[in-house]
Backbone:
């Protein structure tokens, strides 16, 4: 199945450095977004190590082969955790990571943190990943009938990240690709400022993945550019 891709990252208008990283490798069929955790040191190094380790591991296997994605995420976590012990022994370092690996008509996902994977299919947008943060965890507990209060100032704090002390519990799943599917991986620099219905409209109306990603980043910057913003888009024929 033929498809086109595009990736871009922007520092925004407030942050002193860009701690997001991305991967867009059409040869290997591997695509990713990683967002270094603010509040911890060396976020940029954490996110960059996450995507470079991912690319290295995938490159060591036969192209187009399904891999053990949970094992890959555990290995990435171990590498970032070890670097954190060197760079920041007291606090460590951390990053989110969401990736897709395309093998034929299958798309394999790996996810830790609150960077997001979306799919637009038949004009309907679906968020494929679940944010690993306190707000989501509290909602899940409430749905189970557990009365738990939520401090609003802490709702976006992550409950899982790349670089955390082992063991890591990543989310891994696979989908079958259909013609005309459009996928977006993005950091929360986009999702915090561009609502899902607007993301859906941009993905529907953009003729190319380049236009979609650049439009979403521009929208985030127009609304203050409070964070780094990164997107990777895949449009299938």
Residues:
């Amino acid at each position: 199945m033929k498809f086109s891709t595009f990736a871009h990252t922007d520092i925004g208008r407030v942050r002193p450095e860009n701690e997001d990283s991305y991967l867009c490798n059409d040869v290997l069929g591997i695509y990713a977004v990683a967002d270094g955790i603010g509040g911890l040191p060396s976020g940029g190094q954490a996110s960059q190590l996450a995507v470079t380790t991912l690319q290295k591991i995938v490159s060591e296997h036969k192209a187009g082969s399904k891999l053990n994605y949970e094992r890959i995420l555990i290995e990435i976590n171990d590498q970032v955790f070890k670097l954190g012990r060197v760079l920041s022994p007291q606090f460590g370092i951390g990053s989110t990571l969401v990736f897709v690996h395309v093998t034929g008509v299958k798309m394999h996902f790996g996810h830790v943190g609150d960077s997001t994977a979306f799919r637009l299919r038949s004009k309907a947008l679906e968020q494929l990943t679940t944010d690993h943060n306190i707000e989501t965890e509290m909602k899940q507990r409430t749905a189970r009938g557990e009365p738990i209060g939520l401090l609003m100032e802490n709702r976006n704090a992550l409950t899982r990240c790349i670089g955390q002390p082992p063991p890591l519990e990543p989310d891994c799943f696979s989908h079958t690709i259909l013609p005309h599917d459009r996928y977006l991986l993005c950091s929360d620099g986009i999702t915090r400022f561009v609502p899902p219905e607007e993301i859906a409209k941009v993905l529907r109306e953009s003729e190319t993945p380049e236009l979609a990603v650049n439009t979403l980043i521009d929208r985030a910057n127009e609304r203050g550019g409070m964070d780094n913003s990164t997107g990777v888009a895949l449009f299938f024929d």
Notes: The chain has one domain: 3-129+161-236. DSSP finds six helices and ten strands in the chain.
